[in-house]
Design goal:
2 domains; 6-stranded parallel sheet; 13 helices; Rossmann fold
Length: 320
């Protein structure tokens, strides 16, 4: 069966879709899993062995988009996050079976609508995505391998990176930027304190990572930490290279943003900061990796409680 799985939003959201794609492939290796993604996630999708084809929604006309879908000869689709554009394109493509959450006006274009009430956060985002696959195959197993993504050349990538930056110790990485659904983070002043604490211990090499659109932040942190041994890495080689590199790190520290999901996807231990609300919480946005490798902290809005948590995080980093 040719099965389209649609998740055309941001990086972290796309990572939460990967377990659903994996179990659809595992259910029957003859299934042809076709991922419909946003342009930023194309390379990462193509690196997944359980995805057979990638269709990119690049913002073209709805008629051209529907033509792309029609050419793939799709027999069923599972839309994990819907909008009117992807719903209408599938309708125009005349896909026989179309499954999606029963939300928004877009649901009228699907043949099967599933009530999930994600706003209640009864499970994590990736678990809601997995649940939708049961509407296509009632007997499907929702178990998936962890880490979900691995690379044969990750050691070579790591060795070259370490040689280029004179790194001889295990790497603890900080990603101080954020985007997507993340609505809480430490200030740059607070991150500077945490980074200096790890550097002072002398056990690990600290690496700061930045996305390609974070050059100003990259330069800002260089000025702040000019006097300590920190490697600053501006990621310009693409998501797949970044995933390979991060897979060799000892620990990845960030707010709940796309890079956190990448780190967990490839099996790297994470320390992650979440907003103190159900919508932004770890209950909703825990990632797809081993839960035992994820350390979650909810940042309070009350100043005194936030300061107390900050001291706890600092102690945790000193003892790691």
């Amino acid at each position: 069966m040719n099965i389209l799985v649609v998740r055309t939003d941001k990086l972290g959201d796309f990572v939460t879709a990967l377990p659903a794609m994996y179990v659809l492939k595992q259910h029957d290796p003859k299934n042809r899993v076709i991922a419909c993604v946003s342009p930023i996630n194309k390379g990462l999708a193509e690196s997944c062995s359980f995805i057979d084809e990638v269709i990119v929604d690049d913002g073209c006309s709805i008629w051209k988009f529907a033509s792309k879908l029609r050419a793939a000869k799709i027999e069923a689709s599972v839309t994990l996050y819907s909008n009117t554009r992807v719903a209408f394109a599938q309708f125009l493509a005349k896909i026989p079976i179309t499954i999606a959450p029963a939300t928004k006006i877009a649901q009228i274009f699907y043949t099967k609508r599933v009530k999930q009430r994600r706003s209640e956060v009864k499970m994590a985002e990736f678990e809601y995505n997995l649940e939708l696959t049961c509407s296509l195959f009632q007997d499907i197993s929702l178990e998936y391998q962890k880490p979900l993504l691995s690379f044969d050349d990750k050691d070579m990538i790591s060795n070259v990176f370490c040689a280029n930056h004179d790194i001889e110790r295990e790497i603890v990485a900080f990603h101080v930027g954020f985007g997507g659904s993340s609505d809480a983070n430490w200030t740059l002043d607070e991150y500077e304190v945490l980074i200096r604490e790890v550097v002072k211990q002398g056990k690990y090499q600290v690496v700061l990572t930045f996305g390609p659109d974070e050059k100003e932040l990259y330069e800002n942190m260089q000025k702040r930490l000019y006097d300590v041994n920190v490697v600053f890495y501006l990621s310009l080689e693409g998501l797949v290279y970044f995933a390979k590199l991060v897979s060799s790190f000892k620990l990845f520290i960030s707010t709940s943003t796309g890079t956190y999901h990448i780190a967990s996807l490839v099996g790297t231990p994470t320390m992650t900061f979440f907003g103190n609300s159900l919508f932004a919480s770890s209950k909703r946005w825990k990632s797809v990796g081993e839960e035992s490798l994820q350390r979650h902290y909810m940042i309070p809005q009350v100043k005194e409680e936030k300061e107390k948590l900050f001291e706890e995080v600092k102690k945790e980093l000193v003892s790691c």
